[in-house]
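Deliverable D5.2: sample structural annotation.
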Amino acid sequence: MEKSYSKITTSKKISFSDKRRYIKYFWVSFIVAVITVPFLFLLASWGVLGEMPTFEDLENPRNDLASQIISSDGVQLGTIFKPNENRTPIKYDDLPKHLVDALIATEDVRFYEHSGVDPRGTFRAFASLGSKGGASTITQQLARLLFIGLRSKNIDKYTQKIREWVIAARLERQYTKNEIIVMYLNKYDFARQAIGIGSASRIYFNKELKNIKIEEAAVLIGMLKSATIYNPRTRLENAIDRRNIVLSQMAKYGYLTNKQKDSLQKLSIKLDYKPEGYAEGTATYFRREVKEFVEDWIKDNPIGENEDGKLEYHNIYQDGLKIYVTVNSRMQKYAEQAVKEHMTNLQKEFNKQEITNSTTPFRGISKEQKDDIVNRAIRNSTRRKVMKDNGKSEDEILASFDIETKMKVFSWKGVIDTIMTPRDSILYYKRFLHTGLMSMNPQTGEVKAWVGGINNKYFKYDHVDQGARQVGSTFKPFVYATAVDQLKYSPCYKVPRAKITIPVGKHGVSGQDWTPTNTDGNYIGSVTLKNGLAKSINTVSARLMDRIGPETVINLTRKLGIQSEINAVASIALGTENIKLSEMVGAYSAFANEGIYIKPFIVSHIKDKNGTLLYDNFPERKDVISKESAYITLNLMEGVTETGSGRSLRTDTSNQYLYKNVITGHPYKFENPIAGKTGTTQNNSDGWFMGIVPNLCTGVWVGGDSRSIHFESITYGSGASMALPIWALYMQKCYQDTSLQVSKSEFVKPINLSVQLDCEIYETRDKVQDEFQF
């Protein structure tokens, strides 16, 4: 046994020559490492191992900054950005302490001790071969984000790491620790168009960063490991697990007590997801209008010339412009809510009535005309254009429109996954009714709310300013205002109901004599101007037009800012012309501003990212009609909401019944002064309502994609049924929010008003109880 043991110990003895060889290898390896490692770092700094940032790059690392659209009440409505660059810059003072604590505890606990590279962490990573975590400091992660990009998976990953160390060391010499934190959090992509912590806070939690709670900050910091794997929107369980790890790290390093940690880890993640894509979020149509305005302003206002003598301009996608707009975020929200509430019910009623219509969603046309509309839509479709660009023949393209395919389609209940042919999808989308709403302050010209349509993702057309529609009886106040201003008529002035014929050759009448009719068929007796407008009596408007002439009325509309084409023909008295909603609201506002027209505007001022003022709006103003004429016109339109087609806004003064929304049956019960006018065009194709209170003028249009898409009866197809309810719902919400200070007062009455207003507006035969005539 002893002999055997002796053999074993003898075999393990190392000879003196072997010891010398091992010592030699050690020192050679050590010397090589001492020489090689610095040499590798030197090579990296020279750019041999890959492109390195210059001093100028380090001094000013390029971050494209999205331009911010900021409402009149200080809320960010959205941003204007290049794809994948929706970055809103934040400063260190914007960061809550608990968010910085979470970052340090989770990503780099010795951040304030090292100079870019953490020796202890690096040694630990080498010793464990990465099994106990990597050694990337916050500064190294910033270096990777700014100058290196995605990590390679081959041999390049080692040279990238060396470059990363070198850049991190340089960054530490160039910037303070707090600046490095801010640069890192501003640069990181949190996914779903959330570039930087500021955008992420808004998109995932609908909060400014300073208001983020501890548990919410932990979610965002947790996403730094992977914004995809730990995304609370798409992988909630992963996000909760990662958040809890962040909270544990905070407790481990003394930023939270164990009791706080345990309490916070039990909470669910409460997202308030607000995407900021151009077709998502709030005020989508308005933001597009703002973008177009700023782009035009940039083209007209160069910064100066560069070294080559070429003009330089601001960049809306990169310069981080702060665009201050006139829209109030709460009023915009109320407007969008009102649209959704009413249009959901209106569409449901429309769909119900279309079940028995053989040419649905069109009325009054043949099957051949229906096919022609669909084929025209096919020719203009994006699908056809893409297929044609890909070399497909016309026969192949047309055939594809009859092949069933999976698709997502819009509905008022949410996006629907379905299978249908592209041809059927065209008909599906044609059946939707559309709307536009614009609201402005008559005294300042500031647009306070703008809803261009029902859903910008699926319906791009902006019904506020992009196109014009036939205005119907909402044109009549211009006729009455001209008569009041030119002929000095009072609201009590009486006009015969009798039919009037304007012969060919007079007032632009051509083809045959023009003899308008009244919807109620009543042509007996006379009515006051106030009752004539309240009941929207066509023969009264035509008689006034015959006395003043269409050119005089058109001249007034031009002064009121209406630029849409208006033909000088007598029939414009009934609203046969197409006018933009934005122009109508601007024109009506002049009546509430004592006859002074102020051009509506949407951008109040623009600043650069440093706060320097670049643009300041000065509203265009001009006197159009006298204060007296403007006030009388308002008085005439008050009759519309008191006794006429807009009286569904009121509680009946006799207390016998409530006027109600024809769709929902809900009463509105407005009791304050309201000047307004409904409008309904032929075949009920367009429904309008223009409503004014002293400091807010709002116009609403509702209709189909084409004039052949409409309700069959005026009960549902009038302006009082289609458009007025949106105005009423919007105003109810505005009045409930008393901080908005929307007026319930009387309109400003001119001093020494010489016109008689206190006249009998009801005549026995004019007490028509039909609530929905136009």
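Annotation notes: Residues 16-46 form the longest helix (31 residues). The chain has a mean pLDDT of 86.
The annotation will be released with the project's public dataset once the embargo ends.
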